[in-house]
Amino acid sequence: MTAHTESTKNPIVRFLNMNTSREVGGRELPLWRQILLQVLCLVIAAEVLFPIMYIVTLSFSSRETRPASLELIPTEISFAAYKQVIDRPTANPITFIELLRNSFLLSVGVGLAALMIAVLAAYAFSRFKFKLRSVLMVLVFVPLLMPAIGLSTPLYLLMNSFRIADCGGAIAISPFASCAVGLGKVMFNLRDSLLGVGIAMISTALPFAVWNLKGYLDTIPKELEEAAAIDGADPNQVFFQIVLPLALPQLAVTFFLGFIGHWQEFALPWLFLTQPESYTLSMTLYNMTGQYANSIPWNRFAAMAIIVALPVAITYIALQKQIVSGLTSGGVKG
């Protein structure tokens, strides 16, 4: 009798190797491995949920001071912090609705603009053969290798060079013209505006969008376009009536992934914007922090953090399956 047969007769061994998943396909996992994986998942879930539960508990507190002990379950349910944040987030002269509008315009505007540019570039890389095509694809990929904050200095200098000034009756547009030394009042600075921040964010969003869409467009059969061309469709009709409808799911995924990142963008707006009327929700959240921990209104800070994160969380949960399937389908070919 072999050792394997002896082990299968041992009830303890049979119990530890029991398949409790009831799955017919795939690789069977013994009970001890399933328990180990479940424990590991619980540890990871606890680590992820710990800061979320702590922030939620703080947001429902009526006290502005930080709790002396660690509280993960709310001892009271008070919406005073949420009311205060919505009525007047900070001492700056800007309302919550204006902050929400700025964040929405910036994230949606950047997402749509980057998507329109990226789909044209991705289609060119996917379908056309031209010189330096591979080199240009590598150059598009290079910004993804650099931290976004590393690109802030050249973007700052570039946006700050475009200004409109009043030279005492005459208008000067930099860098094409400028006022005399000591004269002129700046009427518009591209750097200190939502438009300038949006242009800078588009430049950082394009590389990922181009690569993500290019991989998906490679999976669309070229025979469909050739058949449409034989039927008399011109290149514009082929692109807008054949390619774009087929790529619509990936376009939606690319936009929403960009929306998630742009909604929470903090570094570029904080470096570029100085006028409170142009602030975003993430900038206002940082403005609620003080020099010392005791000076921070912790319940309002937690409520603001929940409000800022809520649209992103709802969007991701609602589109989780589409996002995952879109990323995997776009990575079939590259």
Key traits:
334 residues, mainly alpha, MetI-like fold, 2 domains
Could you please describe the fold and organization of this structure?
The protein is built from 14 helices and 3 strands. It is flat, with a radius of gyration of 27 Å. It has a 3-stranded antiparallel β-sheet with strand order 2-1-3, with no helix packed on it. 23% of the residues are buried. The two termini are 54 Å apart. With 334 residues, the protein is mainly alpha-helical. The longest helix is centred in the middle third of the chain and has 32 residues. The chain is 63% helix and 4% strand. It folds into 2 domains: 49 residues, no CATH class; 207 residues, MetI-like fold, CATH 1.10.3720.10.
Short structural summary:
This protein has 334 residues and is mainly alpha-helical. The protein has helices at residues 3-9, 11-16, 31-59, 80-87, 96-127, 133-145, 152-160, 194-217, 222-230, 235-263, 267-272, 281-287, 298-318, 320-330; strands at residues 163-166, 171-174, 185-189.
